[in-house]
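Backbone geometry:

***
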Amino acid sequence: MPICTIELLSLYSDISHFLQHLRQTPIKPLVLARVIRWIIKPTYQSKEALLDQNPPWDLLLIYEGSQSSFPSTIRNTIHTRWSLQAGVPASIIASFKKNNEQILHPPSDDIPKPIRTVSKPGGAASAQSLELDEELHQWITSGNDAPKGAVSMLNLLAFHSGKQAQYLKYGKAFAEEVGKRRGGLAKLVGKVIPGLGDGGCDGWDEMALAHYPSLEHFADMLAGEDYQKANHEWRLPSLKDTCIICTSELDLGLDEEKARL
């Protein structure tokens, strides 16, 4: 199974400067995305490495192969990098770039409408259980720094012993029903390889990159009774720890000013 490297980068310079140098390397990203915010923060797994980061994370970079030794021109633009490596099915990698372009830029008629307009949150105390709380709802609806188009959510998963099969039931419900209804899909999934990547990454079992047509679609899912049934019945009991980072993908090969977000 091919290896992919998943990196979070905090930059000294602006994103366009980093991209100029990245284009001069052999690295061919599968995903290059601007980090927007945390949706769920890790409870303890990689907590210090992921959360005690100042300045905050700027970019998510995913590419095929082991962690690259960046040339000095790129290293000089990076303040901090955190990575893990995962085995990803070859069939996913082979068609990913073509499929991802179609996922990110589909005909407008192919994008399902949200089932409901979420006018208020459902009363959750926080979003840590992947429920729509007041703070997350306000951020999505305020329009301040929330992206307007498609979003990609990086999920890191650590399972309770013997509970991975239970999570697969959630994955099936997401793919066939509760996520699909809102245009959600897991477009990149992999099993984390222990001992590779940074020292703070050990303990994660899987990674997944989930697509949503918009944050409104994501909020609609979280507010749905059908989704929360799957979440509480299968997802939450199976997870020892998890985190989700919301990102907005950049068009590969373009600098920041020309990127479609």
Observations:
- The first strand starts at residue 3 and ends at 11.
- Residues 90-104 form the longest helix (15 residues).
